[in-house]
Amino acid sequence: MILNLTPHPIRLYASEREDGSDDLDSHLRAVFPPEETPARLATIELGGGITFEMVEFGHAQNLPPKRDGVQYIVSLVVALALADRRSDLLVPYREVRNASGTVIGCRSFAQPV
Asked: CA 17 to CA 29: how far, in whole Å?
């Protein structure tokens, strides 16, 4: 089972799907609706100065514990922050773009390592 912990639906297209079309259904394989609460990367502000802030990243919020047979679609920043600790996180890969260049889905998922 794959659960989507991003704030928007993820459309998975077949590899032959070409960019530049506004037809959302062409070569569509699956749609993963978002779960109620997205996983986010929390920040801790450590101080700084006038021109910058020192910020610690890497603490995930709203990410369920690992479960057998379940993988989670998350943002790339969440997956990269936890790549050394979680093998159940997926990110959209090989983006599909519409006629105006906006990302509307992906052709596969990647597992950051």
From this structure: 10
Residue with tokens 């514990």: 65
pTM: 0.86
Q: Are 110 and 93 in contact (CB under 8 A)?
A: yes
- Name the strand (E) or helix (H) holding 82: helix 76-82
User: What does the block give as tokens for 18?
Assistant: 């070409």
Residue holding tokens 């959209």?
A: 92
Taking only the tens place, the pLDDT of each residue in 7-54 is 999 999 999 999 999 999 999 999 999 999 999 988 777 877 778 777
pLDDT over 90 at 70, yes or no: yes
| Chain CA centroid to CA 7, Å | 9
